[in-house]
Structure formats: C-alpha cells, structure tokens
Specification:
This protein is of the alpha+beta class and about 400 residues long. About 20% of the residues lie in helices and about 30% in strands. It is built from 6 helices and 22 strands. The chain has a 16-stranded antiparallel β-sheet that branches. α4 packs antiparallel against α5 and α4 packs parallel to α6.
Length: about 400
C-alpha cells in the first residue's frame, strides 16, 4: 500500500448519534494528554473524565470514567467538562501535527469554536505542579459554552473543600491543593467545595482560557493566565522537537510516529518506568469481571516498548527505561516479578473500591493480583533488550 494514502484522519463525534449511555462515553472517544508525569483522558464531547495526579498510580483526581452520572451517593464523580450549552453539537478532533496537544472543533447551528488542551511542561522539564490548560477560540458565529468542574473522592479517601483567600481560592483534596486560573471572559456561576460552574461565549476571533493547577503536599504558585497560555504553545513546540528524534521513514510512518507519541506518554519521567496504561478497572468486556489495574510496569511489556524505542532511535527513553529495569531487578532478588510499581517497588495487594465501575462493570480495583504469576518469556525479552544496546 502506498504510504501517502495512510494518513491519520480526525475523529468525528455527534452529541445525538454518539450520546453517552448512563453518563458513560464509549472508550474509543477518549484521547490521552500528558506531561510525562501524569495522563488525563479527554472525551470527544469536551469532558476530561480521568486524571490521576501527581503520579499515574495515584488515587484518581477525576474519576467520572468509572462513576458515570447516576451514582446517587457519590454524585457524578470528578470531571472537567467544556461543551456548548443546551444544544446539539458535533466535534471534529485530532492532535496537533507532531504533538500531543489536542485540538477539538465544536460545531453547532450557530457557530464554530476550537478547544486546545494539554498538560503543560516548562522549557523541556516538569513544572513544580501539574498544569492542565484548556483554550476556547471562536472560529465563526457564536456559541455559548458551559464549564463544569467537579472533584472525585480519591478512591473514597477524601472529599474536596474550598478555602477562600484574598489572593485566590484554593481547593483541597487528600493532600492535593488546586487553584483555577482563567481569563475575564469566563464567568463563574457557582464556586463551591466540590463544584465549579462557569460560562463563556465564543465569537469570531475571541479567546478564553481556563487552567487547573494542582500540587501535592507543597506550595502552589499563582502564575498569570497569560503565562499559563504561553506555556501551552511552548509545550506544543517541545513535543514537536521530541517528534523530530523519531528515526523512521518507512511504510505507515504517520501511524508509527503517532504510536510512539502515545508510548511516550506512558513513560513516568521521574523514574523511567513504562506503565502499561494510565487507567484501572476498565473491563475486557462490558459487565465482565476481568477488570485490572494497569497503572504499573510489566517487565515483558516494558521490554517490548524499549525495543521499539531503540529501533526508532529514541535512545534517551530506552536507556532511562532499561536503567529502571536493572535497578528494580537488583533491588528485589532473587526472583524476577511480573510487574513492579513505577517506583520499582512491589505491587500492593489488590483491593476492591466501592465504585459503580465503567458501565456497571465490576470490580473496581487498585493493586494487581497478577503480580505473582509466572511469565518465563520475560527473561528472554529482557536479554534481547540488553543485546540491542550492544555496539
């Protein structure tokens, strides 16, 4: 097949044809965004439904992915929703070229607007806090948007509460401290312990920005919204620079490089570990009971990913991941375990969480009982990876 015809197409979504079922969006309509330290899942309808922060194996900060709309005891779960208010709408979205910054075009009968979103980094390195930023730009006509921000309960560990301060308001949740920064065109309608509602109207050429800044057990700065927005564009530039490091020009090049961009999001920058996925308890089949916590590092999967990085010329990521593997194995002799935490420690006991689950699929768990399985193939995978580093 001619590679020129193998291009990545934008994803299309319709609020009527692809409506949520009991508050749950089909999994193919989520896209990951990340900063190398945490990953959020952004839905095609404008809702970020999953985010574990500060680390990928932390308790969920946004957990709507596993809660939906109809849990009467817990409420709708944590989410960050931006959508046209009270009307049918369509979206067309894709990542920016050679980047992990996500763009969504909202289309209604009255206008079009573009949502650009990502997790910011600072000049090629991690910020001292997590910075989730979303920018709404008017393309044509006029659209009134509703913004909804709610917090999860960190796997039943805590409830959020608001602290009012003369400089800014803070939201506290299980050791996390958050602030919201925004442009003046975005108007708060409610601002409570576990709920923020706001609105804005896009017009041709307009621009509104809202950002959620979060840190764990430490001080939190209050940068200007202009500084935060500029970092979004700098983050896009950083992703494009990283993309240039991919050494591949064969068949299906766009697909392979996009896959490499996704795999890059699975690397935990603080240790070099490669997580299998940023989520827990998504079912292998709906209403099935094979729901696992994948926010850990499997030796076999990490070896496969490492081999791919080496063959694509991504030596920095490959070396960091292999060092993590070697250090972790040395720390836990004599038997090699199937998986370890992102910090190279033993996997915790599997525990069930009181939560509705994705579309009612139970159980919802943290930890993974597969830690004690035997996978003899991982020894060969590990040795083959080491061999690839030889000159």
């Amino acid at each position: 097949m001619n590679d020129k015809k193998c291009v990545l197409e934008p994803q299309h979504w319709d609020s009527e044809k692809n409506a949520r079922e009991d508050g749950f969006l089909k999994l193919q309509y989520y896209a990951p965004i990340g900063d190398g330290y945490s990953v959020a899942l952004a839905g095609a309808d404008g809702s970020i439904d999953w985010w574990c922060v500060p680390d990928p194996d932390s308790p969920a900060y946004f957990d709507h992915l596993l809660v939906g709309d109809k849990d009467q005891w817990r409420g709708p779960g944590g989410r960050f929703l931006i959508r046209p208010q009270g009307c049918r709408y369509r979206t067309v979205r894709s990542y920016r070229r050679d980047s992990n910054i996500l763009e969504t075009l909202f289309i209604t009968d009255t206008g079009k607007a573009k949502l650009t979103e990502g997790l910011n980094i600072s000049v090629g390195q991690q910020l001292p806090w997590s910075e989730l930023v979303r920018r709404i730009e008017g393309v044509e006509g006029e659209i009134k948007f509703e913004i909804l921000l709610t917090w999860g309960n960190r796997f039943n560990n805590s409830h959020s509460w608001k602290e009012e301060n003369k400089n800014t308001d803070f939201w506290h949740l299980d050791g996390l401290i958050s602030i919201i920064a925004k442009t003046d065109g975005l108007i708060f309608m409610k601002s409570e312990d576990n709920l923020v509602q706001a609105t804005c109207t896009s017009k041709t050429g307009s621009k509104d920005v809202i950002a959620l800044l979060t840190t764990f057990d430490g001080p939190l700065a209050r940068p200007s919204i202009e500084e935060i927005e500029s970092r979004l564009d700098h983050t896009n530039d950083d992703w494009k620079r990283w993309h240039k490091n991919i050494k591949y020009d064969g068949p299906y090049s766009d697909f392979l490089k996009r896959s490499a961009m996704c795999l890059k999001l699975m690397i935990f920058g603080k240790s070099g570990a490669i997580v299998a996925a940023p989520t827990t308890s998504l079912p292998e089949r709906i209403f099935g009971d094979k729901n696992w916590d994948y926010r850990y590092c499997w030796i076999r999967d990490a070896a496969y990913t490492n081999k791919a990085f080496i063959r694509m010329g991504l030596n920095e990521e490959a070396i960091a991941a292999f060092r993590w593997l070697v250090r972790t194995i040395q720390r836990h002799p004599p038997e090699l375990k199937v998986m370890y935490t992102i910090w190279g420690e033993q996997i915790p006991d599997q525990t069930e969480i009181d939560c509705p689950g994705y579309r009612g699929s139970l159980p919802v768990v943290i930890g993974n009982q597969a830690r004690d399985q035997t996978q003899l193939s991982m020894y060969g995978d590990l040795l083959e990876t080491a061999w690839l580093f030889l000159p």
